[in-house]
């Protein structure tokens, strides 16, 4: 996964095996390299950055790597140099991270459907013995994203479900948000409106009432179709502005380089489509993120038609957007980013998330039939009288 994350001081570009940290004011760069450990008999352990993000107050930055490692850096220092505050093993290859609001915990969602909690104490990521770790939330299928609020744990999985659990007692399920017809890839919380936004492999963005677990709106972002490489496109890139007035969403694995902007209001239908714009000179959008300082500024990491990486910046309102160049240290940042070889990008195979087809039908149909037969068998066994011995 190639990522672009933005804080009040830094613009971060994450690549296959390292992370580039740019100062927004000077353009100076710090390179964070990860030494991948070897995992015996694991086919998928090729070097890759699986996920990364800032903590809510931007005091920490966390990253997941394909060698089952979670690393956390402190972003606070007098010389603007990040320092590693902990690197720990996780049980299985993981796909998403979320911090608690107080930045005292990191939550890690893995491919087996489990969610684990790692504490941060006295500014350091604490080592936890894996044998003694128990998941705080578990799904039957692959977990794909997690969001944490003061009182909720919200998780999304490959089986089209969003689960809302109690934060203090995670075994208590408050609601399921059901309505997607394919995997739920990303979720985000709009706290000021008590809304949950989700995007899915079914090519929709849905708006949910968190308290009721009810779908309030649905938007078709693009048709799920194959491009010339045989990869499917769907809305996978999602970001919300700091003032929670705008949402930016874009598709991946496609030669379309457009971003859709939606506006958030207090109306009965809280989200509305504002407009769509094309990213100038872009061949593919890799990541996007709203600025943490200016809620109108959107950072977009792209592969340009010149086959160079670039960080593009647009100012967005509810009615229009415009490309800007003379903001922050963008020219300095892009002169460095352009020198990054495209081979350093991680090839994220999103199509593997789409369910297999059997004779033209989703595997779900086969699986549901199998469960029905098992239910019939269990019922028949239950009717057989047991003999007292």
The CATH superfamily of the largest domain is identified as: YVTN repeat-like/Quinoprotein amine dehydrogenase
Q: Quote the beta fraction.
A: over 45%
**Secondary-structure-derived class:** mainly beta
Q: Report the sheet with the most strands, covering strand number, pairing sense and barrel closure.
A: 5 strands, antiparallel
Q: Which regions have little confidence, pLDDT < 50, spanning 5+ residues?
A: none
Rg:
22 Å
Q: Give the strand tally.
A: 31
Share of helix, binned: under 10%
Number of helical elements = 2
Number of domains: 2
Write the layout of secondary structure elements.
Layout: E1 3-6, E2 10-14, E3 18-23, E4 29-33, E5 49-54, E6 60-65, E7 69-74, E8 83-89, E9 94-99, E10 105-110, E11 114-121, E12 124-125, E13 137-138, E14 143-148, E15 152-157, E16 161-166, E17 173-178, E18 184-190, E19 195-200, E20 204-209, E21 214-220, E22 235-240, E23 246-251, E24 258-264, E25 271-278, E26 282-290, E27 297-304, E28 309-316, E29 321-324, H1 330-337, E30 357-358, E31 361-362, H2 363-383
Antiparallel strand pairs: 1-2, 2-3, 3-4, 5-6, 6-7, 7-8, 9-10, 10-11, 11-12, 11-13, 14-15, 15-16, 16-17, 18-19, 19-20, 20-21, 22-23, 23-24, 24-25, 26-27, 27-28, 28-29, 30-31
Give short descriptive properties of this protein:
389 residues, mainly beta, Methylamine Dehydrogenase, Chain H, five-stranded antiparallel β-sheet, four-stranded antiparallel β-sheet, 7% helix, globular
């Amino acid at each position: 996964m190639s990522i672009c994350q933005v804080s009040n001081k830094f613009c971060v570009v994450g690549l296959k095996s390292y992370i580039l940290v740019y100062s927004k004011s000077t353009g100076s760069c710090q390179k964070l390299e990860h030494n991948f450990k070897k995992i015996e008999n694991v086919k998928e352990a090729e070097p890759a950055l699986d996920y990364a993000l800032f903590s809510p107050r931007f005091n920490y930055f966390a990253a997941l790597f394909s060698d089952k490692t979670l690393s956390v850096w402190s972003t606070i220092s007098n010389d603007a140099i990040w320092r590693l505050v902990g690197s720990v093993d996780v049980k299985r290859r993981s796909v998403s991270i979320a911090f608690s609001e107080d930045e005292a915990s990191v939550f890690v969602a893995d491919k087996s459907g489990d969610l684990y909690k790692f504490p941060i104490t006295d500014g350091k990521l604490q080592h936890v013995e894996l044998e003694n770790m128990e998941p705080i939330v578990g799904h039957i299928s692959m977990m794909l994203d997690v969001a944490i609020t003061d009182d909720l744990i919200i998780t999304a999985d490959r089986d089209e479900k969003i689960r809302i659990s109690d934060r203090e007692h995670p075994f208590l399920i408050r609601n399921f948000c059901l309505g997607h017809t394919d995997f739920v890839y990303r979720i985000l919380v709009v706290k000021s409106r008590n809304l949950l936004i989700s995007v899915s492999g079914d090519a929709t963005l849905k708006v949910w009432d968190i308290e009721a677990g009810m779908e309030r709106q649905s938007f078709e972002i693009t048709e799920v179709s194959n491009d010339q490489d045989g990869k499917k496109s769907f809305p996978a890139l999602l970001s919300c502005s700091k003032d929670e007035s705008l949402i930016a969403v874009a598709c991946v694995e496609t030669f379309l380089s457009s971003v859709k902007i939606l506006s958030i209001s207090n109306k009965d239908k809280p989200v509305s489509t504002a407009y769509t714009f094309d990213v100038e000179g872009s061949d593919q959008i890799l990541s996007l993120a709203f600025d943490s300082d200016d809620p109108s500024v959107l950072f977009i990491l792209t592969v340009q038609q010149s086959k160079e990486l670039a960080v593009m910046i647009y100012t967005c309102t509810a009615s229009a957007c415009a490309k800007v160049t003379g903001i922050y240290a963008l020219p300095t940042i892009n002169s460095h980013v352009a020198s990054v070889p495209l081979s350093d990008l991680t090839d994220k195979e999103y199509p593997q998330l789409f369910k297999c087809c059997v004779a033209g039908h989703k595997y779900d149909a086969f699986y549901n039939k199998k469960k029905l037969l098992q239910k019939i068998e269990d019922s028949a066994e239950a009717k057989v009288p047991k003999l007292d011995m």
